[in-house]
Amino acid sequence: MSQPPNPYDVIIIGAGAAGLMCAFTAGQRGRRVLLLDHAAEAGAKILISGGGRCNFTNIGTNPTCFWSENPQFCRTALRRYTAPDFIAMVDHHAIAYHEKTLGQLFCDGSARAILNMLLAECQTAGVTIRLNCRIADVAHTAAAQPAKFSVRTSQGTFAAESLVLATGGLSIPKLGATSFAYDIARQFGLRVITPRPGLVPLTFAEDLLALMRPLSGVSLDSDAAIGRNHFRERTLFTHRGLSGPAILQISSAWQSGPITLNLLPGQDATAFLLARKRERPKAELRTILSEILPQRLAQALAPPTPDAETREPNIADLPDKTLRDLATRLTAWQITPNGTEGFAKAEVTAGGIDTRDLSPNTLQANAIPGLFAIGEAVDVTGWLGGYNFQWAWSSAHCAGRAA
Ligand code: FDA
Q1: pLDDT digits (tens, 9 = 90+) for 219-232
Q2: CA 224, CA 250: separation in Å to the nearest integer?
Q3: Is 178 in the pocket of ligand 1 (CB under 6 A)?
Q4: Nearest alpha carbon, ligand 1 atom 18
Q5: How far is the CA of 46 from the centre of ligand 1 (A)?
């Protein structure tokens, strides 16, 4: 049989964060790497990330900041390639950055600096990148020595002994997201945890939306919780429901049922309302609420008094029980989303290639030597705040050391 026309050791499909990182890591080991992407430019999501400044890691990264059916899986990769490891490379390339909040590191300038760094590392490591390259199918010849994967594309057929799936999840289809990694994983018998939108605004049925819609644009400190998982960050009311960091965070844990929203985290709302009733009985409830809540929200949440039509409600008009019920609503508001804004608005995809079918050391498929899956395609989803890129870097590094 004739030799394949394009002899590479490693083919990586997907030139995003994980694919680029994996490519130069393997290239630095002397592996001949081919990196393929159907997009016209590599790293499109890097460029739009972090509002154009790329929140490229989080200095507080640890395994508890990731969602997965198998929460222990990410430990090894995160330990083998850490946030300080990535920061060292950023420093080496003299990219200026700053900590914004909660350990989140952003470029001082454009996210393009991170992409340029990854591309420069690929160039130094001798990686071949082919863009605008549509993938038709992938075949595997287990009988060859060593076994070979061949990838048929719009630019020819390429073969290699290692194949890395780095095509990410389903978020933001207009940026070129596809189900490719899941499809190929299934083709090779790997299980896939049903992908769903993560870090995504939540939507609500009309009964709640009637309250939320007029509050569109209001944002406040909050604590959003599902069971023992809770996030103390800001919530934003929108014309479709709720968004803001607290909601995006909890959305990755939500599949059905209520979330609990505390609009006054760290405050004793009952004690506050009862004290104000004693101290300022003639004050309108909405005025009292405006002391602790944005004014529009205070107006919307103040319950009507018996003679609300003739005058504004005073706090003294309201029985203590009503004030206690209001305090409960403000601090433990149980609201059930009817959905999310979907993959079009989701910053990440939760679920993905089942980690039980991958090695935590190398990200190689247990049953298919030479097949690897990294980055967002895998069922490991970070919190908001640089964790998803850190997972891309860490998982890609491990695969790049082994592929
Ligand atoms: P990624 O999606 O980056 O790359 C996949 C690549 O595969 C793409 O280049 C795509 O074109 C290619 N591809 C897909 N299907 C293909 C096919 N069929 N054939 C060939 N190529 C194919 N995270 C974070 O930590 N900090 C942040 O600041 C942000 N900000 C942010 C903003 C926005 C708007 C979004 C949508 C997402 C973020 N994220 C983020 C998340 C972060 O961007 C994401 O987790 C990583 O980019 C995942 O890296 P991957 O390499 O796995 O996928």
Answers
A1: 999 999 999 999 99
A2: 6
A3: yes
A4: 180
A5: 7
